[in-house]
From TrEMBL:
Protein name (Swiss-Prot/TrEMBL): ABC transporter ATP-binding protein
GO molecular function, one term: ATP binding
Keyword Transport applies: yes
Origin organism lineage: Bacteria, Bacillati, Actinomycetota, Actinomycetes, Kitasatosporales
Keyword Nucleotide-binding: yes
InterPro entries: AAA+_ATPase, ABC_transp_ATP-bind, ABC_transporter-like_ATP-bd, ABC_transporter-like_CS, Oligopep_ABC_C, P-loop_NTPase
Keywords assigned: ATP-binding, Nucleotide-binding, Transport
PROSITE patterns named in the record: ABC_TRANSPORTER_1, ABC_TRANSPORTER_2
Domain ABC transporter as annotated: residue spans: 24-266
Domain of life per record: Bacteria
Similarity remark: Belongs to the ABC transporter superfamily.
Length: 348
């Protein structure tokens, strides 16, 4: 993969012994089915930790549950099972508790045009959080500092502008400034550069890395782009059909992927060697999660006979894998990846 690995520049920001800032255990989010249909298991058992100053990339195809998980972490969707812990305290869902929590954890959406009120000036957009949360102090100074940190300088030049007067990159910086003005400890960024031109994406990613360095911000970056994860993240969690199927340090996962799903996602990057792996069909309906390994109906390793040769084909079809634990360690939910195969058959 081309480009420098930005997420590894400040490895001192995380350690395996410090308590996570955000911790998720056994999280489930299900949505009722229509007309008596089975519930859609959008998030189906997830453990995840994010430490202070750490950037974690959550990757996977559209529809795999990434955005639902991100929203559940912020209390925007109430889990049907499991728990979310922030700074050692379980997340409570009263209006007062959620308001206090959202001063410390902020969401950055992928479409700045859709998340900015076209009738409000940049100043009012950024100041809105201060007004909602009743933060004391000089509002003008706080807005100017947030805009400057987001790369809009001199900030006063943007105060009276409206979103339609800004470029796409500038609008995304305004969204980030609106999150920064409350001085949060965690950003959850849902596809933060998906709607931007390629020339602007690198600038926004560099901004997120700088904010981590300058402010000690932690971040969960939701993306379908493994190239983005390579350039920004310390760790990566690969999600499929509501569950994390591979996780670990980003360089280890993306240079030596163990799960066939991760390998398929990586194979379609422009700089990837070999022939792209084309997965058949779409991810299954989350109302009807397949038995056994939830990836087995699309798995090229099973379809190609490699799982049979490794003696795990029956397990792939019938034996469900456990939820991967939180923490920093590399883990994979795959019978084939865990099988005792000859070295030449191992991925990577």
């Amino acid at each position: 993969m081309s480009g420098s690995k930005g997420g590894g520049e400040d490895s001192s920001t995380t350690t395996g012994t410090e308590a996570p800032l955000l911790s998720v255990r056994g999280l489930h989010v299900a949505f009722p089915g229509r007309r008596g249909a089975a519930a859609a298991r959008a998030v189906d058992g997830v453990d995840l930790d994010i430490r202070r100053g750490e950037i974690v990339a959550l990757v996977g195809e559209s529809g795999c549950g990434k955005t639902t998980l991100a929203r559940a972490l912020l209390g925007l969707v109430r889990p049907t099972g499991g728990r979310v812990t922030f700074d050692g305290a379980s997340l409570a869902y009263s209006a007062r508790a959620l308001k206090a929590y959202r001063r410390r954890a902020q969401l950055v959406l992928q479409d700045p045009s859709g998340s900015l009120n076209p009738r409000h000036t940049v100043y009012d957009i950024v100041a809105e959080g201060l007004r909602i949360h009743g933060r004391a102090g000089d509002e003008r100074t706080a807005v100017a500092e947030a805009l400057a940190r987001a790369g809009l300088r001199p900030p006063e030049r943007f105060f009276l502008r409206y979103p339609h007067e800004l470029s796409g990159g500038q609008r995304q910086r305004v969204v980030i400034a609106g999150a920064l003005v409350l001085r949060p400890e965690l950003l959850v960024a849902d596809e933060p550069v998906a709607s931007l031109d390629a020339s602007v994406r690198g600038e926004i990613l560099a901004l997120l890395l700088r904010l981590r360095t300058e402010l000690g911000l932690a971040a969960l970056v939701v993306t379908h782009d493994l190239g983005l994860a390579w350039n920004i993240a310390d760790r990566v969690a690969v999600m499929y059909l509501g569950r994390i199927v591979e996780t670990g340090p980003v360089e280890q996962v993306l240079t030596a992927p163990r799960h066939p799903y991760t390998r398929a996602l990586l194979s379609v990057l422009p700089e990837a060697p070999g022939t792209p792996v084309v997965l058949t069909g779409e991810p299954p309906d989350p109302s009807y999660v397949p038995g056994g390994c939830r990836f087995h109906v699309r798995c090229p390793v099973l379809a190609g006979g490699e799982a049979e040769r490794a003696g795990v084909a029956d397990a792939c079809r019938t034996t469900e894998l456990e939820i991967l634990r939180g923490g920093d360690a590399s883990q994979v939910a795959c019978h084939w990846a865990r099988a005792d195969r000859p070295a030449a058959g191992r991925p990577g």
